[in-house]
Specification:
It comes from Streptosporangium lutulentum. This is PQQ-like domain-containing protein. InterPro entries: Delta_60_rpt, Quinoprotein_ADH-like_sf. By secondary structure, the chain is mostly beta strands. It has one domain: YVTN repeat-like/Quinoprotein amine dehydrogenase (Methylamine Dehydrogenase, Chain H, 7 Propeller), CATH 2.130.10.10. The protein is built from one helix and 37 strands. A four-stranded antiparallel β-sheet has the order 18-19-22-23, with no helix packed on it. The longest helix is centred in the first third of the chain and has 9 residues. It is globular.
């Protein structure tokens, strides 16, 4: 069990300045503890797909219906979304909007609000197709926001300033034609005419943006596409969002132009910028295949400059999918249902040099080799959400044991508390 008392941890977290923090924006000075905190609540069914941090409130989205506080036997009904206090772990009693279908993406909003995207069509029986802006105080929708996402679901969200970037497999947003990617006015949901980047030429049946990561000037997107505005960008590309209008960045890679197993025509999944934006970490699925493929891997790509880029390093699981990644400067955390890392010669097996890292692991940002950090988790489907913040690393998945303890579908690994904290 976590050695420090809950009161000490709560004090340390409350000393952290409030504000929106997301993976890719927070630098850690070291690797998080392998011992999860004891205060996180439990999600009792389904899967957690997304986590956002709004001030000191954690918002959790996914496909589930029941939650409870740590140490409590009281089961609370929550329709695919709930929120809890970061320091105490207590579930917010007033935030309980009922979403009829899963939440797949979250983004912090200003003034105690959160954006939720997914497959849902109603909230508390009122129409709210696929994207909503919610108050944490009572779960009500913010009036005047009308994104009108049509033709598909929302799978990823990223916000900065007055802009909300939306990714998925939809065909319309804000009343305008937009394929899989849009930039909206964060207050009204109106589509931004200065951003009309169009992913295209999918490898599967439908164009889709799986994940996004945002810096001040660049938006990274990945998914089922091979072009952005007609330019070759197989499954991964960068967009210059500082330009007016926004344009496809000259940075490109052919690393994901190859095939994996037929069941995975598109196989790039999670991605995250380093805190300073100097590199991008990308994880994939794909299945065990022969040859020097990028299937079931983590890779680092330098992002400074332009032109064609090859990965700086690649770490293979040897046949198991990875879905989520968080780059903190001190580590590249990866999660899926993997059994191993450092396994380039494994084919659904442990090859020479493989190290066991069941369900979750950490990779050295410079060497590309697995760090000693090995808390373990029940593998299940896999980790679907990471969120790095100044107090540690939040994890969302579909299983109930993390770090050899019971933590149902949500957990947090804290940064070690030093005497000066």
């Amino acid at each position: 069990m976590f050695a420090r008392t809950t009161s000490v941890l709560a004090t340390a977290i409350l000393l952290v300045p409030t504000g929106i923090a997301a993976a890719g924006t927070v630098r850690h000075g070291g690797v998080v503890s392998a011992d999860p905190v004891n205060t996180t609540p439990h999600v009792l069914d389904g899967i957690v797909n997304a986590i956002a941090l709004v001030g000191n409130t954690v918002v959790v989205g996914g496909s589930f219906g029941k939650v409870r506080d740590a140490g409590s036997a009281t089961v609370l009904e929550r329709g695919n979304i709930f929120a809890y206090d970061l320091a105490t772990g207590r579930i917010l009693p007033g935030f309980k909007p009922g979403l009829d279908r899963p939440v797949q993406a979250l983004a912090a909003g200003g003034g105690g609000t959160v954006y939720a995207g997914g497959a849902f069509k109603t909230i508390d029986d009122a129409q709210a197709p696929r994207l909503a802006w919610l108050r944490l105080s009572d779960g009500s929708r913010v009036r005047g926001f009308d994104a009108r996402i049509q033709g598909g679901t929302v799978t990823s969200l990223a916000g900065r300033g007055g802009h909300l970037y939306v990714g998925g497999d939809f065909t319309r947003a804000g009343g305008a034609s937009r394929t899989a990617l849009a930039r909206l006015n964060a207050a009204t949901g109106a589509v931004d005419p200065g951003f009309a980047i169009r992913p295209g030429a999918p490898r599967g049946s439908r164009t889709k943006v799986y994940a996004m990561s945002l810096t001040t000037n660049r938006l990274a997107v990945d998914g089922d596409f091979t072009t952005l505005d007609g330019l070759s960008r197989p499954q991964l590309g960068l967009i210059d969002v500082a330009a007016s209008p926004a344009k496809v960045d000259g940075w490109r890679t052919d690393a994901y132009a190859g095939k994996c197993m037929d069941d995975f025509p598109s196989y790039v999944r999670g991605l995250d910028f380093a805190p300073d934006g100097s590199y991008l970490a990308v994880v994939t699925t794909g299945g065990p295949v022969t040859g020097p493929k990028m299937c079931d891997t983590t890779a680092r790509f330098e992002t400074r400059g332009s032109g064609k880029v090859d990965p700086t390093w690649v770490n293979h699981t040897g046949g198991d999918s990875l879905y989520a990644v968080a780059a903190t400067g001190a580590a590249v955390y990866v999660g899926g249902h993997q059994r191993w890392l450092n396994n380039p010669r494994g084919r659904d097996s442990a090859g020479p040099g493989a190290v066991e890292r069941p369900g979750i692991g950490a990779i050295h940002p410079r060497t590309g080799k697995a760090l000693a950090w090995n808390p373990t988790r029940d593998r299940g489907i896999g980790v679907k959400a990471f969120l790095a913040h100044r107090g540690g690393l939040l994890v969302g998945s579909d299983t109930t044991h993390l770090g050899h303890e019971y933590h149902a579908r949500v957990g947090m690994f804290p940064l070690p508390i030093t005497p000066d904290s």
